[in-house]
Amino acid sequence: MDIQSYKSMKNAIWLFFFLLIFEGGLRRWILPGLATPLLLVRDPIAIYLMYKAYRNSIFPKSIWVSFIIILGFISIFTALYWGHGNIFVALFGARVLIIQIPTLFIIGKVFNKNDVIEMGKAVLWISIPMAILITIQFYSPQSDWVNRGVGNDMKGAGFNGSGEYFRPPGTFSFITGVSSFFSFAACYVFYFWINPHLIKKYLLIAGTVAFFVSIPTSISRSLFFQAVIIFFFFLWAKSNQPGFLKNVLQIGFGAVIFLFIFSKVDFLNTQIDAFTDRFTTANAQEGGLNGVFTDRFLGGLVGSFNEIDDAHSVFGLGIGMGTNVGAQLLSGKTTFLISEGEWGRIIGESGILIGILIILFRILMTFEITRMSLRALRNGNQLPWMLLGYGFLQIFQGTWSQPNGLGFYVLIGGLIIGAFNTKTYFPKQSTV
Q1: What is the pLDDT of residues 233-265, one digit of tens each?
Q2: Domain regions of the chain by residue span
Q3: Which of 97, 253, 417, 422 is the most exposed place for a label (fewest CB within 10 A)?
Q4: What value, to the nearest 5°, has the Cα angle with vertex 125 and ends 130 and 184?
Q5: What digits encode the pLDDT tens for the residues 280-337?
Q6: Predicted TM-score (pTM) of this structure
């Protein structure tokens, strides 16, 4: 592979990253008239990366990639002959398996650890104005420009939060984007605290403050629980370093001081109160902590198989039907035609046979990446492990039906694999 092709592929990955972060802004503020086609704005980048990888003989030869692409083509066939019968819905759904997932592995081949670290620095820079933006959105009415919805929707892009306050969408088209972004940023915040020599101290402190501000301001329980999980990954990574107990005490003392100062900032008290109210009220409605954890972080893991009934045949109702786009094309309404849970959607769309194979792919991929991350951690490379703090649940059961969720799935999976590569130039093929 020549250096020019390599650089062009790296630039394409960076473009994929920036489009993921700012795609919602394009659809809401800059090009609202193109809101619908911009849903697919990252697909041409993915196709370009696949083309360049094939031309340069670096297309992933992993059994994972071949397996999922074959399932994608089979799913189109079953959707047309035994499912909903709409070719556009089938193609929209199958593109996840045929285009987006191979792109994940290509990112993992092209990027190396240094590239992944550089992207982390960019994430921290972006997190600062993002925290400011969601704070402005938090205090602004839904009719204001900053809260304008997709396609210039004057009802606003915020989502029910607490009382009169809505969950802010940031630069994304939906509030889940904010939760995903700051969960992603948290991995880097904690990684750079393990390796502070890799980043300017002022950027690390500013990024840390932005992350902690985002938790109450987002009014997102998902972000809070994800932050707790990432913190435990951080403690595990620190436990392999000398002076662990001393470091934990220092972290605990620093956290107490930070929270004390945090609570004394008047304008943040409103966010904290709204978050606390949302947390308490929603937990009570969903059956407490156990219900929240089961519904939010296991994605209907057990309940997904309830989708297998007479209406969901062996071949399912057709791939793409469980997405918002599929629902809009088939019913004229943006609703859940199959299941809100990710695994329930997969089973409902693809049926017992293909659905279980897709779920099995996600399970095996998650545990293989976890195994490799633990091995890298033992060898002194904490980066894959810290990214796994967010990536584990995202790869395991993160949504593919929503553009933001799919984008972060592809990005975090590719970056974890890329973080295994320690060469400064084109890395060897990952074994994942």
Answers
A1: 999 998 876 666 666 676 677 667 766 776 666
A2: 3-419
A3: 253
A4: 70
A5: 776 655 555 555 555 555 545 555 555 555 555 688 889 999 888 888 888 777 676 7
A6: 0.90
- Would you say 297 and 394 are in contact if contact means Cβ atoms under 8 Å apart? no
Q: Backbone phi, then psi, for 159, in 5-degree steps?
A: -130, 150
Q: How many degrees, rounded to 5, is the angle at CA 419 between CA 416 and CA 424? A: 155
Q: How far is CA 396 from the centre of its chain?
A: 11
Give per-residue burial for 362-398: e unless 16+ CB within 10 Å, then b.
Answer: beebbeebbebbeebbeeebbbbbbbbbbbbbbbbbb
d(CA 32, CA 153): 9
Residues 6+ apart with CB under 8 A from 111: 10, 13, 119, 414, 415, 418, 421, 427
Angle in degrees, CA 20, 233, 359, rounded to 5: 60
What average pLDDT does the chain have? 85
- Is residue 415 within 8 Å of residue 116, measured between CB atoms? yes
**DSSP annotation string for 17-42:** HHHHHHHHHIIIII-GGGTTGGGGTT
Structure tokens at 9: 């592929």
pLDDT value for 332: 74
**Contact in structure between 138 and 129 (CB atoms under 8 Å):** no
Neighbours of 239 (CB within 10 A): 12
Q: State yes or no: pLDDT of 7 exceeds 50.
A: yes
CB contact at 8 A, 412 and 366: no
Between vectors from CA 177 to CA 283 and to CA 212, what angle results, nearest 5°? 65
Mean local confidence (pLDDT), 352-379? 93
Place of tokens 């809401």: 28
Dump the DSSP string for 348-360: HHHHHHHHHHHHH
How is 189-249 classified by DSSP, letter by letter? HHHHHHSGGGS-HHHHHHHHHHHHHHHHHHT-HHHHHHHHHHHHHHHHHHHTSTTHHHHHH
Place of tokens 């084109």: 426
- Report the C-alpha gap between 301 and 293 in whole angstroms: 11
Query: How much is the pLDDT for 427?
Result: 44
Query: pLDDT above 70 covers what percent of the chain?
Result: 81
Q: Using CA atoms, how far apart are residues 174 and 289, in angstroms rounded to an integer? A: 25
Q: What average pLDDT does the segment 154-164 reach?
A: 62
Full DSSP string of 291-330 = HHHHHHHSTTTTGGGGG-STTS-TT-S-TTTTSHHHHHHH
